[in-house]
Design brief:
mainly alpha, 2 domains, 0% strand
Length: 269
């Protein structure tokens, strides 16, 4: 019965989702070109560099792999380091599982799993609860295709780009990822999680192999997210000065919090 009092939320347009994803896609593009150039310089063929972005699709582990190759290490050592870095995707997958249809087919679930990357998960969870499967897939396809295409551009045309440092491509991706974290840092839990994760990573990086400090820091940050948010201060304004809506001043006409929006019995694809 309560669903009769809810305002239906229309599915977001694909063009609108892509437009909001573009700033992050620009950073991913710069990072992809940089990876393509460096992968070929480390000894990979342009085709293999492009296929790695299509099949692995994990920038951090791919850079770790070619870093080991460039330093003269074995491919197996580079692969192990990449796998350690990718352990964080287990947590990302668990976080996204509750927002995706449980009755999806196996091919759909496998396709969704391939879209679980840092930026896709961050952008999806930062938005409203309504229509998250649609936003997740549009954002994921946009960013993954950007990563693969720009890797190919860097791999096949990198010799024409000159010095990558002069273009500033080495800082584009970290800057874009920091921008993704900005909304979370406005909350008390976000600030505590960032501080705990950062301190753990700084302390362990000189002591442990690449990849392990990131995993441990992520676990510490996840635990820090359990810190409760302070209760909102009561509204002491006169009733006449409060926003229109319910008697207590809360406007529920555009509520997009958990459990609101479309009928909970409906399925999102």
């Amino acid at each position: 019965m309560s669903s009769l009092h809810r305002t239906p939320v229309s599915p977001p347009l694909v063009g609108g989702i892509v437009a909001r994803t573009l700033p992050v896609a620009v950073a991913v593009a710069a990072y992809g070109v940089s990876f393509g150039v460096l992968a070929v310089a480390a000894g990979l063929s342009p085709l293999l560099a492009t296929l790695s972005s299509l099949l692995v699709c994990a920038g951090g582990s791919q850079f770790a792999f070619i870093g080991v190759l460039a330093a003269g290490g074995s491919p197996m050592t580079g692969a192990v380091g990449g796998l350690l870095l990718n352990l964080r995707f287990l947590a990302f997958g668990l976080a996204m599982r509750q927002h995706l249809p449980r009755d999806a087919s196996r091919p759909r679930r496998l396709a969704d799993a391939h879209l679980v990357v840092d930026e896709t998960v961050a952008l999806t969870l930062a938005g409203p609860d309504d229509h998250r499967p649609r936003r997740f897939r549009v954002i994921g396809v946009t960013l993954v295709s950007t990563w693969v295409v720009t890797t190919a551009i860097g791999a096949y045309g990198g010799s024409r780009l000159g010095d990558l440092d002069a273009w500033g491509l080495d800082v584009a991706f970290p800057a874009g990822f920091v921008a993704l974290l900005a909304p979370w840092l406005r909350t008390r839990r976000g600030k505590v999680a960032a501080a705990v994760g950062g301190l753990i990573a700084l302390a362990l990086t000189p002591l442990l192999p690449p990849g392990i400090p990131v995993v441990v820091a992520a676990a510490g940050a996840a635990l820090a997210l359990r810190v409760p948010e302070p209760a909102p201060a009561p509204d002491t304004r006169p009733t006449s000065a409060r926003p229109t809506g319910t008697a207590d001043g809360a406007d529920t006409s555009a509520d997009t919090g958990p459990g609101t929006g479309a009928d909970p019995g409906s399925k999102e694809g």
